[in-house]
Design a protein that fits this description.
568 residues, alpha/beta, 5-stranded parallel β-sheet, binds 6-O-phosphono-beta-D-fructofuranose, glucose-6-phosphate isomerase activity
Length: 568
């Protein structure tokens, strides 16, 4: 019996048969299932685990040489085997004095060359040295990008925009995002912006993503139209003053009309959804908050990168524990979803970011070494969703407490509120924050312990209502608690924690978390549909479907779409 089977057997025979209420009654157990690192506490005592299982986790990690693999990845091996690429987002936050070798070359000087350019450029924009075409200060930034070229940046922006120092650094500035190719998203992104004060950052690793390129063209036209109204028609110079790009495809950014001085590169060893700490995120975030402030995000991420490979005891390694618990819940406990609940409004967009990082990375079943992995433990990336607490309690928590399936939860909270610094009445802020966090603690216990029939009866509930008021409990969750308020350093830590836990899960499942072939099919089909729509712009019945290989149902639907457009 291998260690994975041993874990499965231990779960089936012992842990699945022991209610969390019983596990939690063991004080000795509880005190071992919590650990801290660099201002972050991880409490996993409300998971269906005990010290025996954690010892088995250690054996699993040792037997699969997890730490060896993690170290190799950070040293530049071509771990992304299906695309023959290294996986080195960790190099983006490695200190300048260290070396990371890819294809015989140290990549760290390249990383710092780009960071230095980002620092110089963003400081010149923020100080008013680099101005718009009509010599007005560029106070607004619009980021055009989608997926990994958008979600992580928005998460960090939202996380920091109410941080006291973040507010001071971004005073008078705006950061907006245009991701969806929906024209309504364009209206929202550009609404009430003065073109003379607006800088665009076109974020695309490939610079071929259809949505981003179309949005970039729409914005380019908008810039030129707005300037025309103001009586300016020098297109080349106007665009050079208002367009910047971050991409690995420098040929295409040049063709688009972006001055190469304003293009910030990165490398094929940074996956799109892992690119927030490249210029993709650092450029727009530094425009908004200043480079030195955003550099702290990189420091925080680096702290976790190091912790990942240096803490070899699984019971103390935060990202490894998160990964092991994710693997265990999905492959052993067979739970198919995960709710991510930050008790922090500033983490509003964190679940959306994690959805991409997790599900685009591990939402696949093609194994790298099919012979080495048992079907029983096959990739089982959960469906991830989430909303800030307490809003989520008043939305989907009914199902989480009493629904037919168990949905593990990860709760994230802060001991201090961002709102406290600079508040006119800090005690009132603390009071409100305590109210928020009371819910965080209460939910955890309600999920684990539930409420028994005996307890319901003891409360004097009428017989016909009793079974409605029983909570099964035995629903697992874990708690991440930050010592400080959300700040750039611990936001960087949080980013890296979830990046690495996804990797750990991917390694345990034997898949490659760094490709995304599954997204490609839809892209190709969309192109085909688009050519049909272009061919039939003014045709409202019997569309020409020549060369379009689809079933009659899809063709009918497209026919209806054009027919509706022709009706008054
Ligand atoms: O969704 C597929 C994907 O390739 C993501 O992995 C990536 O983050 C996104 O599209 C955007 O790609 P790009 O940065 O090349 O425009």
């Amino acid at each position: 019996m291998d260690i994975q089977q041993k874990i499965a057997q231990y779960y089936d025979t012992v842990l699945s048969k022991t209610h969390l209420r019983t596990l939690l009654d063991n004080d000795e157990r509880n005190k071992h299932l919590v650990t801290q690192f660099d201002g972050i506490l991880l409490d996993y005592s409300h998971e269906k685990v005990d010290t025996e299982l954690i010892a088995q986790f250690q054996q699993l990690v040792d037997n699969t040489n997890l730490f060896g693999t993690l170290k190799d990845i950070q040293s530049g091996i071509k771990f992304n085997s299906t695309e023959n690429r290294a996986v080195l987002h960790t190099a983006l936050r490695t200190p300048e004095a260290q070396q990371v070798i890819v294809d015989g070359q140290n990549v760290i000087p390249d990383v710092y060359q780009i960071l230095d350019r980002v620092k110089t450029f963003t400081e010149s924009v923020r100080s008013g040295t680099f101005l718009g075409y009509t010599k007005k200060q560029l106070l607004n930034t619009v980021v055009i990008g989608i997926g990994g070229s958008y979600l992580g940046i928005e998460f960090i922006y939202e996380a920091l925009r109410t941080h006291h120092e973040g507010q001071l650094k971004s005073k008078g500035r705006q950061l907006r995002f245009l991701a969806n190719v929906d024209p309504v998203d364009t209206i929202r992104a550009l609404q009430n912006l003065n073109v003379e004060e607006t800088l665009f950052v076109i974020n695309s690793k490939t610079f071929t993503t259809a949505e981003t390129i179309m949005n970039a063209k729409v914005c380019r036209n908008w810039i030129l139209e707005q300037y025309k109204v103001l009586g300016h028609e020098n297109e080349k110079e106007i665009l050079e003053s208002h367009l910047t790009a971050v991409s690995t495809n420098l040929a295409e950014t040049g063709k688009f009309g972006i001055n190469e001085q304003r293009v910030f590169g990165f490398w094929d060893w940074v996956g799109g959804r892992y690119s927030v700490t490249s210029a993709i995120g650092v450029l727009p975030l530094s425009l908004q908050f200043g480079y030195d402030y955003i550099a702290q995000v990189l420091h925080g991420a680096h702290s976790i990168d190091q912790h990942l490979v240096s803490e070899k005891q699984v019971s103390k390694n935060l990202p490894v524990l998160l990964g092991l618990l994710g693997w265990y819940r999905a492959s052993i406990q067979k739970y198919q979803a995960l709710a991510l609940i930050p008790y922090a409004q500033c983490l509003l967009r964190f679940p959306a970011h994690v959805q991409q990082v997790h599900m685009e990375s591990n939402g696949k079943t093609a194994l790298v070494y099919p012979d080495k992995h048992e079907q029983y433990f096959k990739s089982a990336c959960p469906f991830i969703f989430g909303e800030p607490g307490t809003n989520s309690q008043h939305s989907f928590f009914q199902l989480i407490h009493q629904g037919s399936q168990v949905i593990p939860c990860e709760f994230i909270g802060y001991a201090k509120s961002q709102a406290e610094t600079g508040a006119s009445n800090p005690a009132a802020v603390r009071d409100q924050h305590d109210e928020l966090m009371s819910n965080y603690f209460a939910q955890v216990d309600a999920l684990a312990r539930g409420k028994t029939k005996e307890e319901v009866i003891a409360e004097g509930v009428k017989e016909e209502l009793q079974h409605h008021k029983i909570f099964p409990g035995d629903r697992c969750s874990l708690q991440i608690l930050f010592q400080n308020e959300a700040n750039p350093y611990n936001v960087g830590q949080l980013l890296a924690l979830y990046e690495h836990r996804v990797l750990v899960e991917g390694i345990l499942w034997g898949i490659n978390p760094f490709d995304q072939w599954g997204v490609e099919l839809g892209k190709v089909l969309a192109k085909n549909v688009r050519s049909v729509l272009l061919k039939n712009v003014d045709n409202h019945n019997n569309l020409d479907f020549t060369g379009f290989n689809a079933n009659s149902a899809t063709k009918n639907l497209i026919n209806h779409y054009r027919a509706f457009q022709g009706k008054q």
